[in-house]
Specification:
With 228 residues, this protein is mostly helical. It contains seven helices and no strands. Helix 2 (24-47) crosses helix 3 and helix 4 (66-99) packs antiparallel against helix 7. It is elongated and about 85 Å long. The two termini are 35 Å apart. The model is unreliable at 1-5 (pLDDT under 50).
Length: 228
C-alpha cells in the first residue's frame, strides 16, 4: 500500500480532528502538517526495514495519541480565533466611528427639531459601546500575540476574559444599533428612502454577520480548550 494511502495514519488524524474546533483554514493547515509529518515517519521506518503495518503503528505511537496532542493544537486554534474576532471588532468599530455620522448628513430631517432625549442617549450609548469594543479588540490582539509567544497561564486566562468581553460587547452593540435604526425609522419616515441610511443598514448587517461568525468560532474554540 502506498504511504500516501496509509489507513492507520488517516484514522489517527480523523480522531485528532474530531477533538479540534477553531478557524477552518488553520485547522486544515495543522492537520495537513501533521499528516505530512506522520507519512514522512512511516516512510522512514519502511526504508529502515519495517513492514508497512509495523511502520505505520510505530509512527503513530511516536506521534502521540489524540488526547495528548489535542490541547496544544486547540490552544493554537483558540488564539487564532481570538485574533480574528479582535481584528473584526477593531475594523468594525473603526468604520462605525468614521461612517456613522455620514449616514445622517444632508438628510431632509437633519435640520428639523431635535430627536427625543432618549434617542440621543441611545445614540451616544452606541458610540460608547463600540469605542469600548475597539479598546477590547486592541487588547485582544495584544493578548493573542503574547499568548502565542508564551505559555504563561495568566495570558491564557486574560485572553479568555477579553474574548468574553468582545463577544458580549458585539452582541450589545448589535442590539443597540438595531434599536437605533428602528427608532430612526419611526421618527423619520424618509429614513427608509435615504440612500446613506440604506447603505449603512446593509453594511452594518453584513458586518454584524461576520462578527457573529467570528464570535461563534471563538466560543467553540475556547469551550473545547477549557473542556480538553
Amino acid at each position: 500500500m502506498p504511504v500516501g494511502e496509509d489507513v492507520l495514519v488517516e484514522e489517527h488524524l480523523r480522531l485528532l480532528a474530531s477533538r479540534l474546533h477553531g478557524p477552518r483554514r488553520l485547522r486544515a493547515d495543522l492537520l495537513t502538517e501533521a499528516r505530512h509529518g506522520l507519512l514522512d515517519a512511516v516512510e522512514a521506518y519502511r526504508d529502515g526495514g519495517l513492514p508497512a503495518d509495523a511502520a505505520s503503528r510505530q509512527a503513530v505511537a511516536d506521534f502521540g495519541t489524540p488526547e495528548q496532542l489535542a490541547p496544544a493544537y486547540q490552544a493554537e486554534l483558540a488564539v487564532a480565533a481570538l485574533r480574528r474576532l479582535a481584528l473584526w471588532i477593531v475594523a468594525f468599530a473603526g468604520v462605525a466611528a468614521v461612517a456613522g455620522d455620514l449616514t445622517w448628513q444632508g438628510s431632509s430631517w437633519s435640520a428639523g427639531p431635535p430627536p427625543p432625549a432618549g434617542y440621543l442617549l441611545l445614540s451616544r450609548s452606541v458610540e460608547v459601546i463600540w469605542a469600548a469594543a475597539f479598546l477590547f479588540g486592541v487588547a485582544g490582539l495584544v493578548l493573542a500575540a503574547m499568548t502565542a509567544r508564551s505559555s504563561w497561564p495568566g495570558f491564557t486566562t486574560a485572553a479568555h476574559a477579553v474574548g468574553t468581553l468582545l463577544t458580549g460587547t458585539a452582541v450589545l452593540g448589535a442590539l443597540a444599533g438595531l434599536a437605533l435604526f428602528g427608532w430612526s425609522i419611526v421618527l423619520w419616515d424618509a429614513a427608509l428612502t435615504w440612500p446613506p441610511m440604506i447603505v449603512g443598514m446593509l453594511v452594518a448587517g453584513a458586518g454584524h454577520l461576520w462578527l457573529g461568525r467570528a464570535a461563534h468560532t471563538w466560543l467553540l474554540a475556547a469551550r473545547r480548550l477549557a473542556t480538553g
